[in-house]
Design a protein that fits this description.
Blueprint: E1 2-3, E2 7-12, E3 16-21, E4 26-30, H1 32-43, H2 48-62, E5 66-67, H3 71-88, E6 92-97, H4 122-133, E7 141-146, H5 155-168, E8 173-179, H6 187-195, E9 200-204, H7 209-215, H8 225-238, E10 243-250, H9 258-268, E11 274-280, H10 300-312, H11 318-321, E12 337-340, E13 345-347, E14 361-362, E15 366-367, H12 370-379, H13 386-389, H14 402-411, H15 422-434
Parallel strand pairs: 6-7, 6-12, 7-8, 8-9, 9-10, 10-11
Antiparallel strand pairs: 1-5, 2-3, 3-4, 12-13, 13-14, 14-15
């Protein structure tokens, strides 16, 4: 038997001696004697039976702390198999539609820069319907996400596409969402989206008024904070069945004010169908410099400290601070999901949209660039990364940005987008134990 790669044996000044296993999601409290025994076994697993005795030895084998030679690798392959299977067995056609790539904002961290301002024409709309109908025998429904640019700059086009989907598509829409900066929302738009049973509307508020207006900048130089907040006030009343996701992109400039912002916004929209949450700024453009971190991007330590602080302030629930298994699927790793730009080009990642050499095909010809398509599908996740396969945290890490990993692998630069490290895991577990 050998020491499992998924073991994290640690001492906490706050909590004492523990062993966490990221495969089993177990947390075993130890006394000092057994902790010291396991330290020796970690270095020399052959002495396990002698040091532990039969009862404890059996317990640690059953707990997958001690495993056979191939057991860890077999477990990784099972996870990979399930992920690959789910990637290719989808009953839905996932469409991220960009009716325009134009935007009325000039956010400094945006990955969509110098893109054309086209609006999806009626010819491309017809191509879209034909593309969808080709999937009628393979898929049962459509999941629809409106994206951009700023999609509401092409609201009339959105209405045209909805009408054509309802009248000409052989696949029904099962769910729909929209990512918008929220500045252009009005009563007519809200009432229309409510009539189309939009399920989710994502709007970004990037900090208090001062910070937000430095980050979410109108192209004309004006402020946007007050208008967006007022529009969310309107949307939660006019669209009660649509969840309004108010997202904050966390970076160095706003991380310290998020707790106050969260509490303020939660109080403002208490009792409404509104979810306040955060995401981290990531410089995920294919053409970014791998060696240079985005000026606002947080390090792994800073991200872990940020989440621990949210838990201590009651924003992250106890059950969410504890590590969970993560083999999530995204557009880029789903065989039947595409980002579609106004000219009808297909992409696997919205950070590639509008960059034609990064497209995987088009609405007329389907997938034509299998180099990029296959790289996303089977070569961009944590299972395709030799360092991730050796990592203790593989079961509980989402693997980070797939496009960033492709960029790093192709340029032979180490991937540095890890979501957790030893220090972070211990802080998560300490916080979890403190919250009990």
């Amino acid at each position: 038997m050998k020491w499992s790669q998924f073991n994290v044996l640690f001492y906490s000044k706050k909590m004492g001696y523990y062993l966490h296993n990221t495969r089993m999601l177990s947390l075993i409290k130890l006394d000092e004697e057994n902790y010291n025994k396991l330290l020796k076994i970690r270095e020399n697993p052959d002495c396990a039976k002698l040091l532990l005795g039969e009862t404890d030895y059996t317990y640690f084998v059953e707990s997958k702390v001690l495993v056979s030679e191939q057991e860890d690798n077999n477990f990784i392959e099972k996870l990979e198999y399930k992920k690959r299977k789910d990637s290719f067995v989808s009953t839905s056609l996932g469409l991220v539609l960009c009716p325009t790539l134009a935007c009325n904002f000039a956010c400094p961290y945006c990955y969509e820069k110098k893109l054309p301002n086209n609006v999806m024409s009626e010819i491309v709309q017809s191509q879209l319907i034909n593309f969808i109908n080709k999937y009628a025998g393979k898929c049962k429904f459509i999941t629809l996400d409106w994206h951009g640019g700023e999609p509401l700059l092409a609201f009339e086009t959105i209405k045209q596409i909805y009408s054509r989907l309802e009248n000409e598509s052989k696949l029904p829409i099962s769910s729909s969402s929209m990512v918008t900066n929220g500045y252009l929302l009005n009563e007519d738009i809200c009432n229309y989206l409510a009539s189309k049973e939009l399920n989710y509307l994502q709007i970004t508020i990037d900090g208090n008024k001062f910070t937000h207006n430095k980050s979410r900048i109108l192209k004309n130089g004006g402020s946007s904070f007050e208008k967006i907040v007022e529009n969310i006030d309107m949307a939660v009343e006019l669209m009660p069945n649509c969840c309004i996701g108010v997202r904050t992109n966390i970076g160095l400039l706003n991380k310290d004010e998020y707790v106050d912002l969260y509490n303020e916004l939660s109080k403002r929209w208490k009792g409404k169908n509104c979810s306040i949450y955060h995401s981290f700024i990531v410089d995920n453009s294919y053409y970014s410099n791998c060696n240079k971190q985005c000026s606002q991007e947080l390090s792994t330590k800073e991200k872990n400290d940020f989440i621990v602080n949210l838990a201590k302030n009651g924003i992250v629930k106890k059950e969410l601070i504890y590590p969970q298994r993560d083999c999530s699927l995204y557009t880029c790793t789903n065989n039947n999901s595409f980002v579609i730009d106004p000219l009808g080009y297909l992409y696997k990642c919205w950070a590639d949209v509008g960059i034609y050499e990064r497209s995987v095909g088009n609405l007329v010809n389907g997938i034509t660039n299998y180099d990029i398509f296959s790289r996303f599908m089977v070569g961009s996740d944590k299972f395709a990364d030799v360092n991730c396969r050796k990592c203790t945290y593989l079961p509980i890490c989402n693997g980070g940005c797939n496009l960033s990993r492709i960029r790093s692998l192709e340029r032979k630069v180490p991937y540095k987008n890890c979501s957790i490290d030893d220090e972070g895991l211990i802080k998560y577990l300490e916080t979890f134990l403190e919250m009990r």
